[in-house]
Design goal:
- The chain is an alpha/beta fold and 275 residues long.
- The chain has two domains: 2-82, Met-10+ protein-like domains (GMP Synthetase, Chain A, domain 3, 2-Layer Sandwich), CATH 3.30.300.110; 99-274, Rossmann fold.
- Helix content is 32%, strand content 33%.
- It has nine helices and 13 strands.
- It has a seven-stranded mixed beta sheet, with helices on both faces.
- It is globular.
- It binds S-adenosylmethionine.
- S-adenosylmethionine (SAM) binds at residues 68-70, 102-103, 107, 128-130, 133-134, 149-152, 155, 178-179, 197-198.
- Residues 68-70, 102-103, 107, 128-130, 133-134, 149-152, 155, 178-179, 197-198 line the site of S-adenosylmethionine.
């Protein structure tokens, strides 16, 4: 359908490239456009807006996610210049702001995996929670308590809104601030499960993750790993974790979450720690 919309604007190889770099989030479309196609970006935006019936806005992603808040620069190509929308996933409703707080629809499989691992009665600390995607899904699916921490005030406000939208008051607790300071002040030895979804800084925050996790608890340690062979990425990330961890750890599992560049993978290692 999209290919058809872009016929006459792009060659079929150009539209293949473009479509793999296309995300639809509620009524917003975000598209990454290769440099060579940038002169046609407005035409591409208008074609996408016309073809994807429920879309109200098309943005060009002009930068990768960056900075402490892991946000990206978006440039309006067609439609309304509004970056807030509602996104639905596995029966949960999420208010998101695609420009001002981190959000990725590409992590849905990992969100479901984590929610499935949680046991009823658990406490989870989500150290880098964004708008609370993992937190809300976990608490919607299982009887658990989730501390959902983020340093970005807009992300924490949206998380509060998402708690309301999903009727999870008291089950998900949104806390705004630096995760290491919050853990030091109020969340030591509390978590059966700790989520560290800030792969670029996992090593820097590993001590905080260990502090918040109970003896025998599980840490989900995310990282970015270079691997010449895709099949090696999981094992390489296990090795990296074991090289940097200061505590006795049993590896429960490891896997690729998603590719993030040529021969680069976002991986997760699930570990049970002993303190
Ligand atoms: N887990 C969320 C998700 O998947 O939607 C968000 C993950 S995003 C890659 C990382 C988040 O960590 C961002 O929302 C950013 O604001 C937050 N962050 C960065 N440094 C932080 C810190 N020191 N303490 C708490 N949150 C932090």
């Amino acid at each position: 359908m999209l290919k058809k919309a872009l016929e006459g604007i792009l060659s079929s190889q150009e539209s293949e490239e473009l479509i793999s770099a296309f995300d639809q989030i509620g009524n917003i479309i975000i598209v990454r456009i290769p440099d060579l196609l940038l002169p046609k970006k407005k035409l591409i935006g208008e074609a996408l807006l016309k073809e994807v019936k429920i879309s109200k806005s098309v943005f060009y992603q002009a930068s990768p996610v960056e900075g402490d808040f892991r946000t990206r620069n978006l440039e309006i190509l067609a439609g309304e210049d509004r970056t807030e929308t509602e996104y639905k996933e596995f029966g949960c409703r999420f208010a998101v702001d695609v420009a001002n707080a981190f959000f990725s629809p590409r992590l849905s499989t990992e969100r479901e995996r984590i929610a499935n691992l949680i046991q009823n009665g658990e406490t989870m600390v989500n150290m880098f929670a964004g708008v609370g995607m993992f937190s809300i899904m976990a608490a919607k699916k299982k009887k658990c308590t989730v501390y959902s921490i983020d340093i970005n005030p807009i992300a924490s406000k949206l998380c509060e809104k998402n708690i309301e939208l999903n009727n999870l008051a008291g089950k998900v607790i949104s806390i705004n601030g630096d995760t290491s300071k919050i853990i030091d002040a109020e969340l030591q030895n509390i978590a059966d499960r700790t989520l560290m979804l800030l792969p670029e800084k996992s090593d820097e925050f590993l001590d905080s993750a260990i502090k918040t996790t109970k003896d025998g608890g599980t840490i989900h340690y995310y990282s970015h790993i270079h691997a010449d062979k895709k099949s090696d990425a999981g094992k390489l990330s296990e090795k990296h974790y074991l090289d940097v961890t200061p505590v006795k750890s049993e590896i429960l599992a490891s896997k690729i979450v998603r590719p993030v560049g040529p021969r680069y993978y976002q991986t997760v290692v699930d570990v049970k720690i002993s303190k």
